[in-house]
Structures are given as C-alpha cells and as structure tokens.
Amino acid sequence: MDMKQLQSFTAVVRYRSFTKAAERLYLSQPTISTHIRNLEEELGTCLIVRTKRSVDVTPRGQELYECACNILSLRDNLIRRWSSNESSIIQLGASTIPSAYILPEILPAYGKAHPEAYFTIHQSDSRGVVEGILNGSFDLGMIGMKYDHEDLTCIPFYRDRMVLITPVNPHFLSLKEQDAPLQRLLQEPIILREQGSGSKKSAEYFLDSMGIAEEQLKVTARINDQESIKNLVAGGLGVSIISERAALNFVQEKRVLLFDLPEHVSQRYLYFVMKRNYALTEHVRAFITHVKKYYALDGMP
C-alpha cells in the first residue's frame, strides 16, 4: 500500500468514476485500475464493485476510504508545514470564545514581537477544533473545555467563569435588587448554546449541580453564535448562561444585567489543545509561551 494507490482509490470513491479520477490525477485509467487492484490484493478484500453503469463502494471500501482520507490529509499538512513558504504560518483552530474575545486581544502584541509569524484561523466549536487537531488540519487549538483523549494534550491558559445574563427591564432590575435565587431566574425563557461548545458543557455542569434537568427549562432558542445570544437577550427574548468574558462588553454598556453563579460551579478554563508527543514548530511554541505569560494567573491547574 502506498500513497499513490490511496490517492487513486479515494479519487474513484469521491467521483464514483474511474474516468473522472484519472482526469483529476492526470493518470491513465489503466493505472487507476492497477492501483485499485493492487490494494484489493494486498488487503485481501473487494473494495469497489464496478459495473457498466455505476461504481459502488463496499463496506470495507468505505472504511478504507475514511482512513485513507485521514492519511492523505496528514501527509499534505506535514508537507505544508515543512515547506519553506509555509513554515511561519500557524494553522490555528479556535472555538467561539477564544476566536471572538481572546485572539483580538493577544494577536496585536504577538504580531509586533514576531512579525515573521502569520496565522490562518479556523473558527468552530470546541468539538470541531478537536477533530481538526486529531486529523492534522490544525497545528494548535484553543477550546473552552478539557478533552480527555489518549492522543491529545490540553494546557490551560485563561481562567473564565460562567454567568447568567438577562434583559434590562423593571422585572429583572427588581430581581437583581432582591438578590433573587437562581432557581427563580431559571424559570424564565432561556437561550442555550449548541451541542459541542465548551460554554454549553459548562452550563450543563452548572445545571447538574443545581439538580436541574434541561427538560425542565423553558428553552426558547438554541444559537451557535455568542453575539447573537447577547443581542437576543438584550432584545428581551430570554435569559442565558454564557462566558463572563463574552458578556463583559454588553454588561459595561448596560445592555444586559449580570447575575453571578456559585463560584465552585461557575469557574472554568480555556485550553490549548494539541497532539500528544507532537513536535511543535518554533512559532507555535513561541505563541503558546506568549499567551501563557499574557494571562499568567496563580493557581492554574
């Protein structure tokens, strides 16, 4: 099994055509067919069923296709990182809070100290960033929750906490003056984050600590954008549990009210995530050092 065989195989599966695969790879059809046949002989199984009208993939072929795509992606990313033109570019995956609120704060200073370094930033939720790290798409990730995975290392760099925000109106101003219990506030219509985000996991942890199941809440919307959530809360659609770092500007502008959550369940960290035992480039190591110094806090785990 070699890379050329895997390239031919994935192209045939992708385009469901030996002809199109040959055209895309600038190879002859007999060469493509030879690559597929050699793979099948080596693996001792049928991968592709070819008829006059269609090209079908067997279950074993589909399994190999998924693995082959990851192998080719890892190869391409390794070549890209090692090429002289790309060596100073950091492929950074960042979840919502780091990409929207942390990176704008730290990148200007880092850029001045390291003018030779450049970033390509890919925004996703925490789960999407982790997937990008595992498949080799990203050099480094910044996420809102710790992932326990044998192939990953997570390093905390920022202490955050979850808070509850509400619209600014007489009803909630009265509740704030009364120091209303959180159980009362959680009876209001609530806006939640999407599955896969670190903020959603942190909110779930808080609710579990309060003995409140999500089914008991009056969920009025699920939004995957932090800014949209704040705007909807400010507009009166409901309350929400979000990152204090994300809520800060709306609180300062008096567009929403902030209610504290119990400290022992509201605190969380933002993390760097990377492949375990992975050789980081000099620029990635310098960026990690810069961020950890910028947000240096006592008591980091």
From TrEMBL:
InterPro entries: LysR-like_Sec_metab (IPR047788), LysR_HTH_N (IPR000847), LysR_subst-bd (IPR005119), WH-like_DNA-bd_sf (IPR036388), WH_DNA-bd_sf (IPR036390). The keyword DNA-binding applies. One of its GO terms (molecular function) is transcription cis-regulatory region binding. PROSITE patterns: HTH_LYSR (PS50931). Keywords: DNA-binding, Transcription, Transcription regulation. Pfam families: HTH_1, LysR_substrate. This is LysR family transcriptional regulator. It comes from Pseudoflavonifractor capillosus.
